[in-house]
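User: Can you help me understand a structure? I only have the sequence.
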Amino acid sequence: MLTEETHRATTFEIFFDIVFVFALTRLIAFMGEPPTLLSMAQGMLLLLLLMISWGAYTWLGNQARADKGLVPAGTVIAMAATFVAALVIPDAWRHGRDVNAPLTLAVAYIVIRAVQLALYFYAAAEDRQLRGKLLIFAVPTALGWIVLILGAVLGGTAQTLLWAAAFVIDIGGGRVAYVFRGGWPLRSPRHFAERHGLVLIIALGESLISVGSGAGTAVARWPVLVAALLGLSMTVCLWWLYFANAAATAEQALVQASGIRRDKIASDAYSLGLLPLIAGVIYLALGTEQVLADLARNRPQHPFGEPLDWTSTTALYGGVVLYLAGRLLFLRLAVRSAPPAQLVAAGVALLLLPAARGMPSLAALGLLTAFLIALVCYERLAQGSEAVTPSG
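Assistant: Let's start by predicting it. Here is the structure, written out as tokens:
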């Protein structure tokens, strides 16, 4: 049942990732009704909690096969809890008469985490040190669950603050366990890198579906169709920026590292470094969806759409800034270096934000797409120059 060094992602794990990414698309629905700075901040908080739960199952799947023994049975329970959480996410801060969505979401999250801890403890039957580490980790994790339930009951601002505290407690618990018991064992580095790449590419694909919902039945109108194609072009650029220009380098560093260094790359670069990348995809999808919704209103006096408000513009451009900054952080944590141009690129995207605020929505989307295409072309040329430059 334990994995080997050559273990790779299973189809069952990919199925779990699809359910998880469905929850991410529900986050876009939550933040887009309509987008506000508060809803975007709350959406980020929900994303952090979801990413913690997904990351826990990635570590589990690296320790024990996800399709053998008791692990798949437990994972199905976690999938059901994730699906329930996804369904109630749009009402995460609303206390309805029939279903208390915040409490339902909190309980679903606890089920997801509790099942993972139980399965991990079961899989570590022959490793007393790992079991001891899990017991230490379970104490602050359970404390975070109490805070989560309390926030769901109180609602409002208290819910936001307490759920943020629950995230900090959960992350802190992992660090405490690390200090007292050392790093978490990584049995198959290629499996670990593959799982993170798969969930990112599924998120990119699902973001296109979410973006398409902003067009509705108006997709046959040429401004809407152009905007949709621009959204696809940006997604292709994001794919290239990570998978063609970062993923292989980081995976090689993870495979070649050993001991504490391998553990730090896995826990810091992948488990934490993936957060801004996924967040960037979600915010970019939210902003693009707002552009399509604006163009779908079909106002003859504004054929290219009206300027987006600050919130939607921030989601659109801020998503790209987050993605680029996340890629930079990911590489620095994985290989301890990253080209300075990547920092410049994130800064340029941020500087474009105020200019885009005054543009028609389609023009703002076009400007961002042109920037990403230019960035991809520049990095491709830079790679070619490095390939032909003499080494000595």
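Now, to help you interpret it: Confidence is low (pLDDT under 50) at residues 387-392. The radius of gyration is 21 Å. Let me know which part you'd like to focus on.
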